[in-house]
Every structure is written in structure tokens, then in C-alpha cells.
Amino acid sequence: MTYFTGLRCRHCGTLYTSGITYCERCLGPLEADYVYSAIERVLTRSLIEKRDRNIWRYRELLPVSETPAIGHTTGCTPLIRAKNLGRALGLEKLYIKNDAVNSPTLSFKDRVVAVALSKAKELGLGTVGCASTGNLANSVAANAAAAGLTAYILIPSNLERAKVLGTLVYGARVVSVDGNYDQVNRLCSQLADQYDWGFVNVNLRPYYAEGSKTFGYEIAEDLGWRAPAAVVVPMAGGSLISKIHKGLEEFGRLGLLRTTHETSIFGAQAAGCNPIVAAVKRGDTDVRPVKPQTIAKSLAIGNPADGYWAANIIQRSGGGADDATEDEIRQGIELLASTEGIFAETAGGVTVAVTQKLAAAGKLPVDETVVIAITGNGLKTTEALSLEPGLAIAPKLSDFDRHLAEQGWTEDALVEEVR
Amino acid sequence: MSQKIVIPTPFRTLTNGAGVLNVEASDVRRAILEADRQCPGLKQRLLADGDQLNRFVNVFVDGEDVRFLDSLDTPLKDGSEIDILLAIAGG
């Protein structure tokens, strides 16, 4: 049984049931639409709780009409009570939603790809593709391999090595483009016009984007069917943040939440690519494109397709937005790792650093639930950090003791002597 | 002094299926008006409130987004290529 009825224009509301990806009336983007009244009658907290722990436990709210082909290990990532980081930031009820350990490719993109490729299979497509800053490339390549689909992946030529290697290894047809993400994306839009392929973030995008709602569903479910007071989410194209908002709103509408408040939505970008933050700070929704210049390559989208919606939701929900410099991004990665034992990619550094700024400015509620979205894994962006151990020592006890003294690590050694 | 406008699929119902229109214009606004003269309806889709680019449309001149240039006043050279794309992709 499917409750997905078609695609509705986010701008003018026209509903389409044929395979179209833009509004014919106003050219606005389309969004999946459901018969919520019917879902409300069948979908209960206990039904969801009985199901397997993957994104399809929320299948009534996802736009696939058959048994999904992909994504049976995706989602249900840990929601961690981050007491140490909370103490450092002055937030008493801080949580981390950790998609750095999502399956199969260690980022939140596995959620959207699971939906997009399941839809591609349903539509009978044999070839899929994407424009990507890396995480999406990894996920499309891996999932396409497992699903028996051919994948064409277009990436900017300056991506981190681990993200390139982690795409090629699956046998995907990788095309490295001499240009930034926005230029790669533009090329992909033109390809989608020429070739009969399913580009997950072009012609499959209305389905793809729905996968991000599961990030919001899981937060609410793991908080005991409660919406958090605030979430802090990294922004590239602006899709994830608007879909987390949509997910929480749907849960509220379906009576699945024990809370009634609206979650304040906060967005984070790098200072070197902050078009949505700039719009929010100006108090408008007119997102002006920028030329990205940042180590947070997964967020380096200067012309965000969902920027307008992201800025809109942030302001309507009583949230806010801020950005982080390159040094603050690195410090954010190290702070999260050293307090919570979670190694996030550069986007995570952005989110932690921005959370720190928002908390210091008194914009986040100190004693209410705040959730930080960690969307990717630090092992993919190691170039961003320059951490080295000291010089190697000889395998001798005396050299070890000297090394401790040289490093200033003697406090632990002294405890041993006293004992 | 002539230019080429590359028309995406959604607009080809207005151009009798043509993927490219040839125009002679000194800036983007005049190119759109000229294209609309050849294929009525294009202006209404590309411009909002009469004189602003539709938020859901991206226009590029020789590969650069006109929002980094002078928007509708962006000057055109002989042989310039104008690409029109829907702003629905990416991220």
C-alpha cells in the first residue's frame, strides 16, 4: 500500500502525477505529496517500533510504491547524549545525531540515495548519476553497485582523495570536472536534459530529497517521540535542513509526537561559502550566490537550490544561522573528537563551531534539548587537519620517560610515583 | 552581432521543439525580449514581475551566472552563448 500521491509544486501547489520534475506553471521545484489522513489511520508509534531498524520503518512517509530495493542497512544511526561537549558549550541537554557511521558509506547521503535508487529501480532505469561534492558520489557508487545499476558520477576535480577513491572502488564511471560544484551541477542539469538517465539530484531530486526526512524522524523517535527544542544543521544546497523540518512537522501532524512545540531550526555554513547564512542575517530569503572558498568541500555550494526554503524555514521557526572560519572548522572537528570520541568531516567541524557561537551568543536554549546534526565521517577529509605525533623515539624506557617530559605529559607519571 | 540562446526541454513547447534560438541583442534583457518576439511566452516564463529573473531560473552568459555579472543588464558579445537552466538541481 502506498500513500504517495504524486509531486506537488512547493511554490504554487499544483499537483502532478506524471513523471515530471519541475512545475509547468511556475517552474518551481516539486515535492512528494502523501494522503496524510490515510497514513494517520495506520501509522502508529508501536507499529514503527516493531519494524527493522532502517529508514524503511517510516515507509508510509517515503515516495516509493513497491518493496524498496536499496537501503536495508541505512539509517537508525546513534543519537548520543553529548554531556562532555555540552559542558564545553554550556548546553545542558545536548545530543549528537551521528550519521558519520551511517551505512553503507558513512554519511547522511545514504538516506537520500536509498530512496532515489529504489525509485530508479521502480521506474525501470538502468543508469543513474549525480553531481557530487563527495559523500553523494560515494553513496551513489556503492548503492548502484549493489543494485546492479550503472553509475555516472560527476565531481569537481579538487575533491579530497578519500572521497574520490571511495567512489572509484565501486566501479562507478567517475568524471572529474575542472570546475567547482556549481559548474559540475550545471553540467549535470544539461546532461539530464540529453540522456535518459536518473540523476539523483536533478531529475530524481524530488524523491531523493525525501530521504532526508528520516534524519528528523529518527531524532524524534530516539528522544521518546519528542521534538527537540532546537536542531543545528549544516547547509550546502539547503535540502537536509528543510527536510528535517518537514519530517518533524509530519510527525506532529500525524499525532506521533508527545510534544506540541515547534523545533527552532538553526543552520551552519563555512564563512567561505555562506550564501544562506548571509540571507538569514540580512533578514530575507533572497539567497545571492557566492564563489565558494573553504576546506568544507561538502558544503561548498555557492548557488544552493533550496537556499530560499532553508532561509525561510530558519526564520519562520524562530531559529538562526551563523558561519565558521577555516580555523574554527578545524577546532570544531577536534573539539567534537576530544570530547565525544566522534571524528566528523569538515561539515561536522562547521556545525560544532557554529553551535559554539550560537550558544555563546545565547541563541540556543541552555536547559532544553538541542541536537547537532553530524552528517559525514572525518576519515574522508583528513587533509583538513595537520596533526602529527612527535618525533619517533628509540624502543627504550629511558627514551619514553624523556619523551613524556619533553611533551609535558608528566602529570600522569607523577601519580604513579606517589602510589 | 548575434548570440545563441540554449533552450532547456521545459521551454521547448514554446519554441516548436527548437533547442537553440539565434538572437541579436546587446544585453540579456534585450535577448530575452527578442526570443519572446520569436517565440511568444518565453518572457513570461523567464521574468517575474515583468523585469526580474524568475527565482527558479538560472541564466548563464558564456558559462557565468548573470547574478555575478549585471543580471539582466549583462552585456553580450558577438557569439555569446546564453544558457537557461531551471534552478531545481544539486545538493
Protein model, in words:
The complex is a heterodimer of chains A (419) and B (91). Chain A has 419 residues and is an alpha/beta fold. The longest helix of chain A is centred in the middle third of the chain and has 15 residues. Chain A is globular. Helix content of chain B is 18%, strand content 27%. The radius of gyration of chain B is 12 Å and the shape is globular. Chain B has two helices and seven strands. Chain B has 91 residues and is an alpha+beta fold.
Q: Give me the Rg of chain B, rounded.
A: 12 Å
What structural class is derived from the secondary structure elements of chain A? alpha/beta
Question: What is the average per-residue confidence, as pLDDT of chain B, rounded to a whole number?
Answer: 93
Radius of gyration of chain A: 22 Å
| Tally of alpha and pi helices of chain B | 2
Could you give a short account of the major beta sheet of chain A?
Answer: 6 strands, mixed
Mean pLDDT of chain A: 95
The proportion of residues forming helix of chain B, as a percent range, comes to 10-25%
Which descriptor suits the 3D outline of chain B?
globular
Instruction: Note the overall shape of chain A.
Output: globular
Overview features:
heterodimer, A: 419 residues, six-stranded mixed β-sheet, 13 strands, 15% strand, B: alpha+beta, five-stranded mixed β-sheet, two-stranded antiparallel ribbon, 2 helices
Describe the SSE topology:
The complex is a heterodimer of chains A (419) and B (91).
Chain A: E1 4-9, E2 15-16, E3 30-34, H1 36-42, H2 45-50, E4 79-81, H3 83-89, E5 93-98, H4 109-122, E6 127-131, H5 135-147, E7 150-156, H6 161-168, E8 173-177, H7 181-194, E9 198-199, H8 205-210, H9 213-222, E10 230-234, H10 239-253, E11 264-270, H11 275-282, H12 307-316, E12 320-324, H13 326-340, H14 346-360, E13 369-374, H15 397-407, H16 410-418
Parallel strand pairs in A: 5-13, 6-7, 6-9, 7-8, 10-11, 10-13, 11-12
Antiparallel strand pairs in A: 1-2, 1-3, 4-5
Chain B: E1 3-6, E2 20-23, H1 28-38, H2 42-46, E3 47-48, E4 52-53, E5 57-61, E6 64-65, E7 81-86
